[in-house]
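Quick one - inputs below.
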Amino acid sequence: MDFDERLCRRDCRPGLAVTVDKRSIAEKAPRPERHVAVVVVGAGAAGVAAAIEAARAGVEVLLIDENPIDNDMMAMDVPLYFGQRMQPSVRNRALMMERVVETNPALAEAHEAGVDVQLGTYVWGAFVNGPTVRELPGPMLGLADARRSWLVGYDRLIVAAGARDVAMGFPGWERAGAMGANGAVSLLTRYRALGSQRMVIVGSGDLGLRTAALALESGVAVAGIVEVANTVRGDEAIARSLAGRGVPLYIAHTIREARGRVGEIDSVVLVQVDESLKPVAGSEREIACDTVCLALGLAPNVELLHLVGARLAFDSALGGWIPELNDQMQTSVPTVFAAGDCTGVHDAMLADPEIARTQGRLAGIAAAQSLGAATPPKIPLPHRGRGQGEGAVHTHWQTWLQSLINAGGLDVNICQCEEVTRRELVDVRPPRYLKWESPQMEARSLDTMLRDGPVNQDQIKRLTRAGMGPCQSRRCREQVGLLLAQAAATSIDRIPLPSFRPPIRPLPMNVLWPTDEPAAMREDWVSWFGIPTQFSPHWEAGMAIAEPTAQTRLILSDE
Amino acid sequence: MEQRKGAAVVIIGGGVTGLSAGWWLARSGVDVLVLEKNIVGWEASGRNGGGATHVYSPFGLEEQRLWPLMDELLGYPTEHQPYRIGVALSEAQLALARRWAEIGETRGFKWELLDRRQLKELVPIVGDNAIGGTYLHFGGHANPQRTVQAYAWALQDHGGRILQHTTVTGLTTRGGRVTAVETTQGTFGADTVIIAAGPQTGLFADMLGVFLPLAPARVEMIATEPLPLMRHGGVAGNGLYGRQTLRGNLVYGGGPHEWINVPDMATPDHPNTPLVRNLARRLAELLPGAAHLRVIRAWGGVAENTPDGLPVIDRLSSPDNVILATMSSVGFGLSPAAGKGISELVMHGRCLFADLSALALSRFADTPPDWRERAGWISTSASVAETAARGSR
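Output:
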C-alpha cells in the first residue's frame, strides 16, 4: 500500500519512523510572514504608551491600529457604532491617514522611540496552541488591510483594544443617525468627519456629558441630553456648564421613537417616565435632530483576549467581562498583557487619559521585562475608579431597557442585522423568513427552555439568529444579554459569555485569503478526512470513493 | 450517589444520533432519558455542513425518504432543502462529482451532467474556472442547529426526558448488564443503554472493557454575510462541503483536519486556526462571484472516526444491553435514518429496514491498539513529544 512513511526529523530517537496523515494539518501549519518580539494592538493612549516603554527598554515592537477604518467597514458599524454619520471625506484614505496621525501626536513619539507603527491595519484573529491545536509554530495574529491578510508571530502581545458603545433599540433606531458615543467621539476627534448638525444624547453619565461638551466645541448643536434616572449621573460641574450653554436636560425621560424621512432621523420623540418606568401620558416631546447619540455606557473589547484564552471575569462597574490581571497588567496567559479601556472602563478614565497611559506603560515595561530587558523604575498601579456612574452599570442598563420596552414595546428590532425583535427573542421564534408555524413551536419559549437549563445566549442566538449578522453582534450583544436576563429573571453575570469567533472583523474572502499558501496545502486538500472507504457504497466492495489526491492507508488489522 | 428516576432506555449523549434515536423511541412509546453533559447539539452535531446526501450508506435510502418528511414529523423546522449541485473546477473534480451522482443512480435516483453554461444558470456566482458540474435530483441539506433542537423538543413532546448539564461519570454493571448510569446529577437506572457520545464514545466502551477504535479530530468551517438566495443552496465542490443557508449565508468547510486526543469527559476545545484563510480562498475559487463577500464567522468542531471511516452501530454481546453508536464523523445527514435504525435495534433486536452488518464492531477485532500511530492519525507534534517522553523513561 502506498503511504507516506518518513523519518522523524526532530529530537526523538533516531531512526524512528513516523507516519504522517497527509490530509491532516501536520507539517502544513502556516508560518507567520514576520515575527516580532512585542506586538501592541491599539494605538490609543494605553497602546502607544505600552509600545513606547517596551521599545525604550530595547525590545522590538510593532504597534498596530485599524484607524483609519475604511468606509465600508464603518458603514457596517464595525468596530464602533458609527451610525452612518460619517462625512463623505472618510472615503479619502490619504486625508484620513493624515488626520489619524496628526490627531495622535504620541504616534510620532512612538516612531521616534523606534516602534514600528502600522496604521490602517485590522487585527482579525489571534491563534495559539492549546490542547486541540498543537501544530502552530507559535502564537500569532491575523492582520489585514484593505487588500490582503497576513500573519505575524509574537513573543508577547499587549492588547489595548479599547471599548465599544452599548446600544439599545427603540422604534426607528435602524435609521441613519442612531449611533454610539464612542463612534461619535472617534469621528469628531480622529477623523474630524462627523456628519451631524444637531444631536440628542441619550445618557447623562460622564460619557454622555463629555460627548455633549465635545460636540458643542466641534460646532455640533446638542438639542438635549436624556436620562432615565431621576438625576444627572455624571460630573455635576460638566452638567452645570452644559446647562449654562443652553443644553436642555431631560431627566426621568426615555425614547419613544425616532422619526424622519425614509431611512433618516429628523426628530426624536421623548417621553417622561414615572417611578415604575412607565411613560407618563401626554408628556411626549418631539425634538428636531439628525442624530441620536447613545451614551449609555461602554463595554470593553475583549474579543482578542478571549481568543488567546485569557481568563475573563464579570465586573459590572467596569462594563462587564474584563480580563483577570495581575499588578503587571499580565493576563492569565503569561505571554499576553492588556491595558486601557479593554481591561475595564470607568469614568475617571474618560476624564483623564493618564490612567490608561499608566496602565499601558506598566504593560509595556512588564512585557519587555518578561523578555529579559533591563528593569526600569517601578510605576505605581493606577487605582481603579468607582465605575461607570454609581454602582453596577448593568442595573442602570436594565433600567434603560425596561423604560424603552415600556415606551416602545416588544416589537422593536433587538438585532438589526437579522431583524429579530425583542418579542421574537424571548419567544425563541425561528426567523421570519422560514414562515414556520406549528402548535409545537407555538408552545415553546424562553420559559419552556429554562426548564431544561439556565439561559445561554449562544443557544438562543442559534435559534433566533439574534447576533448572527455582519456587525458581529456589536450593536446587540449587550441588549440581548440584558433582555434574556430580564426575561429569565436572572442576573446578567450568570449568563455565560457569548462566544467570539474569528475573524473578529468582517473581511471579504478576497482579502482574507492567503496568497502564500504552501503547495502541500493545495495538493493534499480534501473536503473531509480522505478515508477511501468512508463514502464507498456498502454494497459494492470495489467502488470506493476517493477524492482525487487521497492515498490513505487503512489500518484495519494487525498485518 | 443519589438515585434518580431512570428510564427503560438511557441515552448517553445529546448529539444528533442520540437525540434522533431517543425521538424515534419516544414516539413509539418507549420511556427514554437523554443525558447530555452540556446543551443538546452543542458539539459537532450542531456545527457541521448540514449535508444530507449519503446514498452509499446502508441508511442512505431511508435518509432520502425521511428528510422531506422531517419538518412535519418533528413539528419544528429543520430547514431541509432538496437537491445538490456539484461544481467542478478540474477534470478530477468532475470525475469525483460524477461518481457521487452515479452511486445515486445505482440506487434509482436521477441526476444530470451540467456544462458550464447550464451550471451558471443554476449557480450564477460560479466563474469561468468551472468546467461543469452535476445536478443531483436527490440529496439535500438542512440546518444542524435547528435540527438538533427540533429532535430534542420533539422527543420531549412524546414524553421523553432530556437532562442537560449532566455528565456521565460511570456505568454500573451487574450480572453481565449495565444496570445504571452514574452522573454528576445522580444515578439513573436503565434497562438498555445507548452510548452515542461522539468522540467520547470510545471512553465509555473502555469502561466496559470493550475496544472501540476512535480517533477524534478538529475541523473548521467559515460563514459569510448573506447574499440573495440561489435556486438551490446545496452547492459544493473544490474540496469544500457546505451550503447556502436559507438566510443567504455561505457556510463551508473542508481541508486539513487536526488529529487530537480527547482524554476525558470534558468538552474538547474547538478553536479556529489560520486555516480560515485557506477556506476563504477555496470558497472564492468555487464561487468567484461571491469573492467580495465578507467572512463574518468561523467555527470549529470535533469529529471522531473509526479506522475505516464507517459507523459502528452495534449491540454488545457483553454487557448485552448496551448499544454503541458512533457515526464516524458523518452523522448529521444520516441522523433521521440512523436514529430509526438504532431505535429498532432496541425494540426489535435488529434494524428492520437495512442490513447493518457492515457497521458491526467485530470488524475491528484484530485492530492493533496502536492503529492511530500506524495510520498517522495523531498530531505529529504530540507524537514526537510523547515519543521523546517515552524514550526518556
